[in-house]
């Protein structure tokens, strides 16, 4: 029988042999288990597969139903290469214990312990605090990581348990505080390190959920999806954080037939997206608002389908290096491809195609210029951008021109994109 990697913990104290490292993944599923988010989780499982075991620091699922628990368990079983333990998060309600077992437990290795406590409802359970004291009192436990989902009070965020709850935790580990080497939590879709009660606090929530702004000091644009590695070397427990690239998972791409089928699927979904958007425009111009709304919604659905399939085969570079990679394609279009195709259309007496290529070429040139400017993320200042819906030309500035300089479309029809 094939070994199950996703653990259903039945004992409160588990002794593990030949375990010298733990990989930690935070918050893989609280924003949904769609392909777009699960690609990050898949990459995180590959990264923590370099460790002896993996711990998920809560929020495996968006809601605690059988459907979602079965999805995350099946996904984990298909991808994990080591044993995976769970920690209950605030989204992990309902049948959590049925799928993952104990909510408070301890993993004992030869050189360190990981003590998992449930504080998903912003309170530590007495059962967990008693277990914490029991394990820390053991003579064979010399160093420990205390893991829980919601952070304790710290210097960065207010989204944490109360001071009273932290006092209860401190009282439980207090007599053996010197053994507590790290406090570990998730919940916050970011990453930060702090010191609380003289102990390093590591907050990791970058295993699938979209990274979010936490404070002026911790911005989403400065944080990547990531995992935390704890490793014992020569009896000493240390840690390091590994960022995941946006190209962090590539299993499907290794199957070249499947990769081509995925690409074909993306193209089909995007063509459906375009067809529905076009029909929505036609319906709206005829005053059929409900029909237009329906086709607008269908177009959005087809786009998200395309995005999910594309995510599987996407080879995105690091975010801060991404924008510049789009410039050469735009330049090639307006410098080479579109002039060549517009010339071909003119020579073969196809004026509509010629006009479309000339208009697109002008827009692509503006795209390239804006992308070059936006490559300097911190100094890009364009707050308002106008797009002509007739030909697709892009304009910037305080006020839109009265008419599109390419096709003459009136500014009352321009789409306005404003940075909030």
Outline of the structure:
The chain is α/β, with parallel strands linked by helices. The chain has helices at about 35-50, 65-80, 95-100, 125-135, 165-175, 255-285, 290-315, 320, 325-345, 350-375, and strands spanning about 15, 20-25, 55, 85, 105-110, 115, 145, 180-185, 190-195, 200-205, 225-235, 235-245, 385, 395, 415-420. It is elongated, with a radius of gyration of 26 Å.
Description:
By secondary structure, the chain is an alpha/beta fold. 38% of the residues lie in helices and 17% in strands. The chain is built from 10 helices and 15 strands. A 7-stranded mixed sheet has the order 1-5-6-7-8-10-9, with helices on one face. It has a 5-stranded mixed sheet with strand order 4-3-2-11-12, covered by helices on one side. Strand 3, helix 2 and strand 4 form a beta-alpha-beta unit. Helix 4 runs parallel beside helix 5. The longest helix has 30 residues. The model has no long low-confidence stretch (mean pLDDT 93).
Strand order of the largest sheet: 1-5-6-7-8-10-9
Count of DSSP helices?
A: 10
Strand content: 15-25%
Roughly how many Å is the radius of gyration?
Answer: 26 Å
């Amino acid at each position: 029988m094939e070994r199950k990697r996703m653990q259903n913990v039945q004992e409160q104290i588990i002794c593990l042999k030949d375990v010298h490292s733990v990989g930690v993944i935070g918050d893989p599923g609280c924003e949904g288990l769609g392909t777009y988010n699960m690609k990050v989780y898949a990459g995180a499982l590959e990264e923590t597969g370099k460790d002896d075991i993996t711990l998920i620091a809560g929020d495996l699922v968006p809601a605690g139903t059988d459907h979602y628990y079965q999805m995350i368990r099946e996904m984990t079983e298909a991808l994990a290469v080591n044993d995976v333990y769970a920690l209950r998060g605030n989204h992990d309600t309902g049948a959590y214990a049925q799928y993952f077992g104990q909510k408070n437990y301890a993993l004992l290795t030869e050189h360190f312990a990981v003590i998992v406590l449930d504080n998903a409802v912003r309170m530590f359970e007495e059962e967990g605090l008693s277990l914490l004291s029991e394990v820390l009192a053991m003579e064979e436990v010399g160093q420990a990581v205390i893991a829980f989902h919601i952070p304790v009070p710290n210097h960065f965020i207010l989204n944490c348990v109360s001071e009273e709850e932290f006092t209860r935790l401190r009282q439980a580990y207090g007599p053996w505080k010197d053994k507590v080497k790290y406090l570990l939590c998730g919940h916050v879709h970011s990453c930060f390190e702090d010191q609380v009660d003289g102990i390093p606090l590591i907050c990791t929530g970058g295993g699938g959920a979209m990274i979010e702004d936490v404070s002026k000091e911790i911005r989403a644009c400065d944080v990547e999806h990531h995992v935390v590695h704890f490793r014992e070397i020569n009896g000493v427990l240390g840690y390091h954080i590994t960022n995941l690239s946006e190209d962090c998972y590539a299993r499907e791409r290794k199957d070249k037939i499947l990769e081509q089928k995925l690409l074909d699927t993306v193209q089909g979904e995007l063509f459906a997206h375009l067809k529905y958007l076009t029909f929505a425009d036609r319906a709206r111009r005829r005053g059929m608002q409900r029909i237009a709304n329906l086709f607008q919604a269908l177009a959005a659905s087809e786009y998200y389908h395309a995005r999910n399939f594309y995510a599987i085969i996407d080879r995105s570079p690091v975010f801060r290096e991404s924008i510049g990679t789009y410039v050469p394609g735009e330049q090639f279009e307006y410098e080479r491809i579109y002039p060549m195709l517009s010339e071909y259309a003119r020579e073969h007496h196809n004026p509509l195609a010629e006009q479309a290529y000339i208009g697109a070429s002008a827009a692509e040139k503006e795209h390239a210029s804006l992308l070059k400017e936006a490559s300097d993320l911190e100094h890009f200042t364009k707050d308002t951008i106008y797009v002509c819906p007739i030909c697709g030309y892009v304009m910037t500035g305080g006020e839109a021109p009265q008419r599109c300089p390419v096709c003459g479309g009136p500014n009352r029809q321009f789409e306005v994109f404003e940075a909030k």
